[in-house]
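Hey, can you fold this one?
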Amino acid sequence: MQVRRPEPAKLIAVAAENEPMRSRAPRPSLPAHSESTGAVEFGMSHEELVDALRALDGLVDVGGDPPNFQFRSRPFLHFHTSDEGTYADVRFGTGDFEPVWASTPQERLELLARVADHVEGLTRSTKSGRDRPARRSRRR
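Sure. Predicted structure:
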């Protein structure tokens, strides 16, 4: 008599059904607004920030109005407005969104700089290996 064993995938599914769901990590809170050091010599409006984000290679605005950006076909950045001001939720890593203030001209410049550094760093790291010469096959 032959005993039929369940497939491994079915065992995993049954085990997962019996385990309690893990709760998500708590969302990071908004940092305190940056302290103003007096008159800002230069800055940018919200519209200028959105235009600059649209100009970054790799970011795609899939929302239009309101803007909603994707990076590598994944949600990356979107904006919220609260009683305290405007902020962006940005996914700088593989985890959850991180709230970043975008209410003042200085905060918008800082947000743009962080996003540009992040996107360019990831784009550069994935393209850096493409210029290498082809590997030689091993001789036996």
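The first strand starts at residue 59 and ends at 61. Let me know if you want another pass with a different chain boundary.
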